[in-house]
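Entry 14. Ran structure prediction on the chain below.
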Amino acid sequence: MRRNQQGFPMARNAERPLSPHITIWRWGPHMLLSILHRVTGVGLATVGIGLLVWGLAAAAAGPEAYARFLGCLTTDEGAPNLVGWVLMMGLTWAFFTHMLNGIRHFVMDTGAGYELRTNKSFSVAVLLGALFLTIAVWAWVLYGMWPGGAGNG
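Output, structure tokens:
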């Protein structure tokens, strides 16, 4: 066993790197999803819960407080403003990305999907699925549910 200058045993071989560096690995969708899973989880937990608590507190405080809350997210006509759109679309996309990636992790916990090609394909499916579901939900909300939408004849 090799020893350092003080005579203590060295825990590792100094000739070898401590860990693989990011430049060694080829970037792939599975790596992106690993980061996105954390980001979307934190975003849903902080931004989503913050908006929910703010909205509930404003509703409990009375009509003026709730009007101020809505004023931050909507225009005078009641349609979402830029901040409202970004928050609605962002939280919806974050929800679907986090949910589908959680399902992906659940499948991987069973021992399936670890092959590189399968893992990459499943990762791309999660990204595309989250995008598709976000678009589908907002198309349904905008054109199928609101008064005057196509689904309300």
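The mean pLDDT is 88. Will compare against last week's run tomorrow.
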